[in-house]
Fold each of these.
Amino acid sequence: MAVTHCLCERTSFEDILKWARERGIDSQDAVQSGLGCGKHCGICVPFIEYALATGTTRVPWPCPDLPEAP
Ligand code: FES
């Protein structure tokens, strides 16, 4: 299984990374401010951080590099 989208904004990690790269952005805070991804339910935040750090658009789940879900 893999996580590939911010469901609340209906935005794929592929589109998020493309948007971020075009602007030289590498932080979740900037993605949240610019696209809204992460500012609703927030569950996608660690996945977007992982995508930004690694360049992957399909974050595996379960992923040993991410914190456990609350
Ligand atoms: S899934 Fe991204 S804010 Fe809810």
Amino acid sequence: MNKNPKVLFIYPGYIVGEQPLCVQYLIAGLKKIDIETRLFHLTPYRKRPYFGDPHRIIRREFMRVLHDFQPDIVGISTMTINFATTREMCKWVKDYNSKIITILGGIHPTIEPEGSIKEKNVDMICVGEGDEAVPELLEKMRSGIDYTDTASFWFKKDGEIIRNEPRPLVQDLDSLPFADRDCLESEYMDAELFGVNMHATRGCPYPCTYCQNKFLMELYKGKGSFCRYRSYENIFAELDELITKYKIKNISFSDETFSLNKKWLYGFLKEYKKRFALPFVCQTRPDLVDREMLQAMKDAGCQFINMAIESGNEQLRKNVLHRNISREKMVEAFRVAREVGIQTGAYNIIGIPGETIENVWETIDINQEINADRIFCTVFMPFKGTSLGEEMLSDEKNILMPVEDAEIYYSTITVKHKILTPRLLLGYQGFFDYYVRLSKKFHFAVHGLRYFYQLLPPVHKAGGIVRAIREMVIESVYHAKRFLPTPGGFYMKRL
Ligand code: B12
Ligand code: SF4
């Protein structure tokens, strides 16, 4: 191994403007020990050109970066939805130079380590947090000592797999360096609507059956507290740096449940308000807010809050998703947020196992009542490491295509639903906002448009030009949502 190994990270995300904090933390940790790094971020190439094959463009740009940077290691952060891309990129790397070490990290190798390490072009995987594991590995590599005992890593060695235990969770989040921002273009510092992303906490303790947190809690049992909080001073020092160095105008806390710990939150808001006049965005559960809290958040600068509804049907929420939050509570949380002057975003899932078309309409109905400023609707995907996902995956008859291939996650139907056909799900996902935003008298037109939209071939059956046309139609329907009326006007105001 080179005495000064260079690491190229890849983030194969899909959301344009997305900031991969996971990798940004790793880059910051490696910079501290003088390891040269670079980030190849795929989402800039997702601003789909109507002409040209994004896949080919990504390959061309990636080969150019490989050639210029000449990394010793390529590390890829992998979610299940982009595992197919990850696999392919590992092959590109090995075809280019088989000596380059390929490492996978992120949620996918954490929940599916056996499948990940067995991939032909993958040399190592990181199971769980990499903040301490990655610098330790690199230190060992550059000193030329055996690194195959590094906790949290799995290795291939002489035809065998070495499986090291995950190390304990980082308990003192203040000990971590601030996420690196220099690896991103300056436009990310002013990303559409939400600004720069930041984590103030880690972990969420709820048992939702479609989320991997329950699995992660099991994985880390006996390895420290799962829910952790940074000190206010540490967060503020990072904010000071972001304001002076990058002139940020707002901040987005991408923590899963920002108001989980009431005492921590109130203390945070009090100090934040004294020190900053910086609008912020956050997300939490509707059962974790009340008027007093939302008012305190607003007073401190909260301009936007995302909360999940998931389904309008109580039985599905309670018995299938294990989200025991009443309709009244959800409606109230959104109403009060609006009353105190905070804009809202609502997350929804359709295609939940057992869901009927009436249930989809119940979800549309509650969204109409709530009338959030932004609406997000995705189709249920069966992730490994989630109880609902595992239940679906246990019978291959339920599966239409592997989640691993579902890169365009919002328009890809992976489950053979018992009641709802893939076409119906595609149509309702695509036109969800239209049904919510437009008054019932326009629904006949939406039904018509949805009907034609549903004629699109499913992703797994579309190749070449058909796929390109399919994506073009989907993107157009997606972008046309901007012209739907929202509580803030026709298009979301910038914060
Ligand atoms: C914040 C977040 C987002 C953010 C940004 C993600 C990001 N990359 O920063 C946004 C809002 C954009 C997002 C979007 C989505 N997300 Co999301 N997200 C999360 C969340 C809540 C936290 C992730 C996080 O930052 N954690 C803190 C960091 C520090 O931990 P980490 O990400 O695990 O990274 C550490 C290690 O994994 C490791 N590591 C990571 N990468 C690498 C790489 C290498 C080489 C190495 C060695 C180590 C390593 O080191 C890191 C530092 O310790 C997780 C939930 C969770 N518990 O993980 C879901 C989660 C990752 N998301 C999920 C999903 C499904 C999505 C969406 C598809 C949702 C949707 N349907 O709309 C989209 C897809 C976006 C895309 N990429 O195309 C799923 C993934 C399931 C799966 N198996 O793939 C999760 C697990 C939630 C769930 N359902 O359970 N997400
Ligand atoms: S509340 Fe959200 S982040 Fe927490 S476990 Fe449930 S789905 Fe996951």
Amino acid sequence: MKRILISSAWLNPQRSYDVATWKKRSNPFTVNAPITEHFGLRFLKANHPEITILEYPTGDQFINEASKGWDAIGISFYINETNDAVQMAEIARKYGVPEIWAGNYGAMTPAIQNRFDKVFIGWGELPLAEELGKSPAELIHPPMFMRIFFHGLQVQTWGVLFTSRGCNKSCTFCQTPRFYRKPYTLDLSTIDAVLKQYRAAGVSQIIILDENFGYFEDYTREIIELLDRYRLKWNPMTRVETLYKNYDLWKMYGMRGASIGLESLNQDSLDSARKGNDLTQSREILRWMKRDHLFIQTFYIIGFEQDSESSIRENIEELRHYHIDSPQIQILTPEPGTKLFTHIEQTYGMTTYDYSLYDTTHLVWNHPSIQARQMQKLQLWANDRLFTPMNSIRTSLKIVSQSFYAFDKGLKSVVSTPLWTGNINSFQVPHRELIKYGSRRGDHARLDLSDNAS
Ligand code: SF4
């Protein structure tokens, strides 16, 4: 049997590991949600217990581990982690590791694939089974957690759920359809088993990280009935039209918030991206969620070719009225393999192929009307407009009221999940360190906003 180590990219202080405050200015009421578990690696470990995984190691931890005589080392990375992944591969080679693999979205970049011996696109359980000489089996869903902190105190624990993988849409900027190819569901039996574990652990709610929860309609109905049966509250990641169609039903079955790909409030930009969002529905959904005090996370892109500085400012001012709890403002970043990348490269030209800058906080191409530095200032300005102390107070109140609900229903809210959940041979960097990593560092943080503040 091959000895296989699969590692995420090592920690880099230029990147943020706190999804709640990603590239935003912290305030006294901010909560933190450090990413402590690598969900892709947890799935691999649960389905192939014979491998070893390494989640968010420091550089020294990886180097130490790489020297231990592995038959293969796989590196799972995103595009902005490419430079680190290539360095990790070189280190593994120095230690004589015969096979170095690349996986996750970062592996989709053709220009770097020759730095690895094998490239795995899509979720890795199946190709890994082949590598290990095993037959394919039904996927097992491991228990996985996200923890919410307030000034270092853990205030909630969420159970993480994936009910399906992939997406049938074809937004021009998105790598997901090519990454997963065809969307598919996980077997209900493994969802049932993991929900039972979450219920027994007393998590305060479930966060569903499907690309497009609700796409498989009958299946989704069974999932929400299961969630209801276990009396679990939940937040799905979904599309605007899916949420619009199911809003009342899902709320009745325990939905407490949602993450939606709003992407833009500029119709021209949405049309060019073939996003398919109806802005009337987007606005109505945001109004409903604000009215019902649900958690709102929005993914929003600035810097489409149709965007101008004034249209961005106007749209962000509108967004401000919806009291978004977790606004994720990203600078449009064409990613290799997408229609957008080909279009931008041919029409405007890229300004850099340094993939560490493809992190949605840098403009990496020649925008027709906004300079790179100005785009970064706009991103920071947008975050400052949306992520205010008042906004953080509202979010904290939602968390407090949900925690009261959790206590009332016999849920524990704060769950101390074992660090080694699922018997994973993994390194864990303390939460406090993860919260600090990448909090407004580098060029981005040094920008002077004064000449553009409004
Ligand atoms: S942006 Fe969302 S809806 Fe569009 S293709 Fe990607 S995952 Fe699907």
Amino acid sequence: MSTKKPMNPQTPSLIIHSESESKTVDIGRAIGELITSGTLIGLNGTLGAGKTRLTQGIGLSLGIEPGQIVSPTFTICVPHEGRIPFLHLDAYRIQTPEEVDELGLDEMLENGVSLIVEWVDLIKTLLPEIDVEIQIDAPTHDSRIFSFFAKTESGGRLVSALDEKNLDRR
Ligand SMILES: Nc1ncnc2c1ncn2[C@@H]1O[C@H](COP(=O)(O)OP(=O)(O)OP(=O)(O)O)[C@@H](O)[C@H]1O
Ligand SMILES: [Mg+2]
């Protein structure tokens, strides 16, 4: 069941369960339908939690082939041209704050790029304001729990609209 609680930094505004990889991609797709220019989404969760699978789903609704969105080995930041420009950033291998500064993320967001950051907690203090944080937990091999934390007004609207899609009932 999908649960909704008041906005609070510690309390997720929405929790969605996934029992398969394809459900995770569907959740990503639903998020992608709600992304607009300048949206910043941060993902947290251990290795193999499903951050990239979710991002592939987001990319699908922006018109980006899933094969184009991968867990980067050396590249930390990959731009995509979808319905709106979309930047996929993986913070796992970032070593210094300068590496983040050099990306010019503020300017990109102002210019209408939407941004998804895997391992966002590692570079949170260096980023512009995050709209929605998503914590992914993996209680079993195939199940995942997505907890959504809306951090801005527009993030709150995104999470409410996502809630209305009733993904847990599909
Ligand atoms: N319900 C599920 N949702 C998503 N992935 C699942 C699910 N069940 C199993 N998996 C598996 O979990 C893995 C998720 O991989 P993915 O690359 O998305 O993780 P990640 O969080 O990006 O990891 P990394 O931090 O290494 O980049 C895949 O191997 C996928 O098959
Ligand atoms: Mg990944």
